[in-house]
Specification:
It contains 23 helices and 20 strands. It is an alpha/beta fold.
Amino acid sequence: MSAAVAVSGLWWRYPLFSEHEQPHPWTLRDVAFQVEQGECFGITGPSGAGKTTLCRTLIGILPYTARLSDEQLSQHFRGSVDILGQLVNAHTASTNQIGMVLQDPENQFLRMSLLHELGLGLQLQGVPREEIVQRGYAALSQVGLERLWHGAAYIHPADLSGGQKQRVAIAAFLAMRPQVLILDEPTSDLDPVGKREVIETIARLRRDYRITVILVEQDPEILSTFCDRIALLHEGRVELVAPPARFYAERSLLEQCGAAVGELTRISWHTGYRYDGRPPLTLEEGVNTFAPIVAQYGSIAQREEPAAQGEPVVQAEQVWYHYEDGTTALKGVDLTLQRGEMLALLGPNGSGKTTFAKILAGIYRSSRGRVTVLGQDLASKHVRKHLPGTVGYVFQNPDHQLFCRKVSDEIEFGLKNLGVAPAQRREKVAATLEAVGLESEAEEDPLFLSKGQRQRLAVAAVLAMGPEILIVDEPTTGQDARSIAGIMSLLCDLQRQGKTILIITHDMTLVAEYCQRVVSFRDGEVAFTGTPAQLFHDQAALQRTGLRPPASAALAALLNQDRLVLPPLITVEDWVQELGVQSLA
């Protein structure tokens, strides 16, 4: 079978603005691999490894949009990329042979309405109008957004939620049915249900239309479930290409490179229990691996640590919010945030989480109801004006927050406004950059950071100011394991100092490992309030909220179906402690 994509000896480094500067290091270093026709080929690796740059070279965006002379080209680009037997050139991206869904969907939208966005590529291909309409509706249905079709001619893409934007971007390419589809972390902004829905759609299209898929992804569950092979990219080099079972058995290399691995794999690594000589990758394999051990247990008393009850710092009572177009985003929300807690605000895309957070930060004003922060009523314009000194807000999209031309300046800006002395500012900037793994990028322009690096910078810029209450909207989206650990370490440090943290997230593993309490929204209303353990072991609550438990909790629930022997294990560390083997490294 001939290769759909063939990469050989690929090197790339970004050009400089000034000839007097030292050359950038190589972003891609001697990359070589092949993707067979009809294959789903995964690419993973730490943030900043060169994954997005590699995608851009596969489609021809690089080097051909860099406007390099023939003499300059050899200094920045080497090697070859073949798509369907043809060398990639400046026109490859405009053909219907290959399509790429960008990591940030807002960078992809070109038109003023959802309908025109879905049909633009088909118009350029000369597809008849009637077929454009049929394909547009089909593509929107395939990503679970058919309910938007009747207003598609009037809905502006900017008015959609983050997850909806990502689905529309995917649908626009699905409508064109390219032979090779590159997806750069396409589900990073989606809730768990939406994420799986999109990936299953892509898998179905791959099967029905024999599309070759290259999937850049951090989520090991998605990679192991849907990919035939996975490549590990680290510091611009391909360190490993293997089927999922063999890929996740390479513990030493994966840990050395900081690659994300699933909870079942981590439990296996730390306990020594294996499935067919390797870590289990699915819940079914996990049950087969751990059921014989659990069967030896007698009945164990259920344990649950109650959530700490602290002084209320935020109180929301019967909060409603209506957008100008008449959409009701919040419907009588009651919520209390306690001093010193880390609370997870959960819910499907479009459930009202970000709207509520922006009310707490003073960005929006509630339509009805009452909200107080540290006893101050947010109905007062004066209170909202001075709120940024008390409530820090990290936006879901880092590009809505970053504006300085140097990474270190971005962090120092807020400290200057707080009147921090220069020596203390320098010390705080250096410590914060080190904590989020960006110390080597201190002099860089944020424009040249990867999205994952920009996300960490946005979080760091707000964290450095140490607000009393911190709201972070999807802080770990698209991050590698080390970056998530760095961000959460900073948040935990602030919590230990008595700060209060509200995290909006779709990452249930993060919720289980770090949060003391959970509030979940559904359709603008509070659908659940309680601890993570209460949520993840209550099937009715999970169904009501539309959430999926992390693998550790799901495994415990499955093993408890026959007889109740296990306590509510919801993290890898819970499992390691329960099985009584070596502690986590």
